[in-house]
Amino acid sequence: MAKALDLLRRIGFDTIQEEEQSLTRRALSGLAKLPRVKVYGIKAADSPRFFQKGGLIVFGVKGVMPGRVARTLAERGGIGVRYGCHCAHLIVKRILGVPPWAEQIQRLILTLAPRFTLPGLVRVSFGIQNTEAEIDSLIEVLGAIARKQPTQGMGQRMDDFVCAASERVYAPIP
User: Cβ–Cβ contacts within 10 Å for residue 61, how many?
Assistant: First the structure.
């Protein structure tokens, strides 16, 4: 942990914050254009509170369970997110408008079928290691999920990456 803190100090916390906010600004702008995607919390970079926001966005896709969104992001784009209630069950259920009687039914369903997926939200986090291209990939794959369109699979993306890397490695030396 000490090495990680030393590295963060060398980079500079201001630099890290600027990079995270740049990526978050790009992601919020892209998410705002997607149908059926709802962002929770600060939704726009022009919000007076945006400067307080870290590189984290919580969202949902209307009509698609958060577990399916997370799995599809991983399979189609190699994008890792978290989903569910994020240790804030009461708040998430209130945000989603889950009434108390539905919570009781959910408990019963989970008792009878523990593998059943309950409503929740998806959370994506950005850091200094992320790139604008990764944000664009998130928007592309999430757009396909929201529109229910097929996207280029992860296997094809990996093939494209390997080809591009081998071309750089075997390029003639000038």
Answer: 21
pLDDT digits (tens, 9 = 90+) for 133-163: 999 999 999 999 999 855 555 555 555 655 6
Q: Measuring CA to CA, how many Å separate 107 from each of 35, 49, 86? A: 31, 37, 17
Element (H, E) at 123: strand 121-125
Q: 109: Cβ–Cβ under 8 A, 6 or more apart, which residues?
A: 116, 118
Decide: helix, strand or coil at residue 124: strand
Closest CA to 96 of 80, 85, 81: 85
Whether 111 is in a domain gets the answer: no
Specify the number of domains making up the chain: 1
Q: Which residues of 69-99 are buried (b: 16+ CB within 10 A; e: fewer)?
A: bbebbeebbebebebbbeeeeeebbebeebe
Within a domain: residue 107?
A: no
Q: Which domain holds residue 9?
A: 2-85+120-169
Q: What is the pTM of this model?
A: 0.72
